[in-house]
Amino acid sequence: MSATAEGSARDALRAATGAVHDRLHGVPAFARLAGGAITRGEYRALLARLHGFHAALEGALAAPPGLAPALAGWGIDLAARRRSALLAADRLALGDAAPPDPAPIPPPGSAAAAMGWLYVSEGSTLGGLHLARALDGLLGQAAEGRRFLLGHGARHGAMWRDCCAAIEACGADPARRRAMVAGAVAGFEAFEAWFAPGRGPQSGRG
Question: 56, 103 in Cβ contact below 8 A?
Fold first, then answer.
């Protein structure tokens, strides 16, 4: 489906990003995490890599003058959706306090493109609860070490619904929908590149 085709804006986003999203399931660290087979060293490396991406994305979304108010007009509070602090806390719980290596994410060129990038970030909360449960063998029942995967906690459902409503409002205009889809594609491709062989988390053991 093209960005201008009939249907919801979310349909357009899912269609445009489906292939790269499916490829991400094959990233070894994510596959081992989902299967409950990730080691402590692998998980520490994965958290560090995620921290670098999300911290850079949060900075990029907040950087351009006037961008945050534009998203606020669609009901998006960027500050309430930041999760890089959760990644820092998870890393600290596993004994890693090193600053993250930031991903090369430029500020989006428009508020609509920023909404596409936000779709990448917020969409990652959907599978987070399953991945959090897959860590029981490594972390036991403690929440520490998996706060990022637990997402927005009790606010999770409401925040995702608000995000979907903002996506539809933004995508009601064909030009904005095209920019939003392009932003989401760029976001997923940047995430995929950040975890490419030689750049992503190494196969740490222990």
Answer: yes
Look at the chain and count its residues: 206
What is the per-residue pLDDT across 137-159, written as a single tens digit (0 to 9) for each?
A: 999 998 999 999 998 888 888 99
> Domains of the chain by range and CATH?
9-194 (1.20.910.10)
Dist CA 81 CA 76 (whole Å): 8
Q: In this structure, what token pair is assigned to residue 179? A: 């920019």
pLDDT band at 199 (very low <50, low <70, confident <90, very high): low
User: Quick count: other Cβ atoms within 10 Å of Cβ 19?
Assistant: 10
CA angle 197, 93, 102 (to 5 degrees): 40
84 closest CA partner among 62, 51, 129, 56:
51
DSSP-H helix ranges across the chain: 9-24, 28-34, 40-62, 67-72, 78-81, 84-93, 111-123, 128-133, 136-139, 156-171, 174-194
- 114: which 2 tokens? 């920023």
Residue 24: both structure tokens together: 């991400």
Cα Rg of the chain, angstroms: 17
Closest CA to 70 of 111, 114, 115: 111
